[in-house]
Amino acid sequence: MAAYVVRRLILMVALLFVLTAAVFVLFTLLPGDPARLTCGKACSAQTIEANRHRLGYDQPILTQYEEFLSGLFVGRTFSADSPEPIVCNAPCLGYSFTRHEQVLTLIAKAAPTTFWLAIGAFIMWIITGISLGIFAALNHGHWPDRLVMGISLVGYSLPSFFIGLVLIFFVVIKWSWLPFPSYVSPFDNPFQFLQTMILPWIVLAVLNTAFYMRLTRNQVLETLNEDYVRTARAKGLPERTVVVKHALRAGLTPLVTAAGMDLAYLLGGAIITESIFNLPGLGALAVSSVLESDLPLITGITLVTSTVIIVANLVVDLLYAVIDPRVRLA
Fold it and tell me: 10 Å Cβ neighbour count for 62?
């Protein structure tokens, strides 16, 4: 187990190194002048050249990448030969000259919103999806099973923007049950935080619950026909123990895989949901950075979200051995 973890950590570090190189080369070699993107429409040629020098775009590609990579560990300085150099502390993902702030600082401000959005929705869809999936499996072929599968089909078919707009129209505008979403930290005003986040949580939960209902139902139905489940029932174990400890646990592997990846993707920003409910998360930050052609910020967000997905893959692999005793990590 320990050797496997060490190997996976080494592989993860190597993959992160390749990721930084791929992202840097991709955004550096994009068509267009990166220095020109830092200026407005009335930007002069002299200003563009000054920005090119300040950002280091006048250096060879390899030198630019070396400075970018070293900035992740020791930081870097932009406009070092100017009267007011810009110091970017490690880990430096770049400096946004459009917003006049470090990329990591901008991401750190937006990340808590996306984190709470992802965690709240994740808890809702996992509890609801698995519970209804087990309920449908235990009533296989009867009307509760058909009802649950019908609900999942409807939920799976509706796009997130439609669900969000319907909720805003009825819950906020027509019935006035909730005020229009205005995000605050849960540590500043927990009640307003819940009022703001409940609708976005529902939107994401509806979309994912439908998938987890179907996946859980199929996994439980498959494992209920296994010999060890029949043996557990023959021993007189309670039905709840048979379903949860034997049938569900053996079928959790694909659920854990899907849950880990879905949560990781969601931590990278729910672009549509954040835009509909005006949440200042990573998704909204990514959209604005693209609209403003803020290349350093786009690069930083891409690296952070990709890193989250890579780490989530490692965590999911390690959880396999914990959940399923048949899995041996060597």
Answer: 8
Please determine, for residue 42, whether its predicted confidence score (pLDDT) is greater than 80: no
Res 41: pLDDT = 65
d(CA 284, CA 287): 5
Asked whether residue 236 carries a pLDDT value surpassing 90, the answer given is no
- Of how many residues is the chain composed? 330
Sequence spans of domains, the chain: 34-92, 107-323
pTM: 0.87
pLDDT in tens, 294-308: 888 888 998 899 888
pLDDT at res. 201 = 94
Q: What is the pLDDT of residues 133-153, one digit of tens each?
A: 989 988 888 888 899 888 888
Report the C-alpha gap between 306 and 7 in whole angstroms.
20
CATH topology of domain 107-323: MetI-like fold (1.10.3720)
- Quick one: CA dihedral 278, 284, 289, 291, positive or negative? negative
**pLDDT tens-digit readout, 86-130:** 888 888 888 887 888 899 999 999 999 999 999 999 999 999 999
| Biggest CA-to-CA distance, the chain | 84
Two tokens, residue 251: 């079928």
- Cα-flanking dihedrals φ and ψ of residue 279, to 5°? -95, 130
3-state secondary structure string across the chain:
CHHHHHHHHHHHHHHHHHHHHHHHHHHHCCCCCHHHHCCCCCCCHHHHHHHHHHHCCCCCHHHHHHHHHHHHHHCEEECCCCCCCEEECCCCCCEECCCCEEHHHHHHHHHHHHHHHHHHHHHHHHHHHHHHHHHHHHCCCCHHHHHHHHHHHHHHHCCHHHHHHHHHHHHHHHCCCCCCCCCCCCCCCHHHHHHHHHHHHHHHHHHHHHHHHHHHHHHHHHHHCCHHHHHHHHCCCCHHHHHHHHHHHHCHHHHHHHHHHHHHHHHCCCHHHHHHCCCCCHHHHHHHHHHCCCHHHHHHHHHHHHHHHHHHHHHHHHHHHHHCCCCCCC
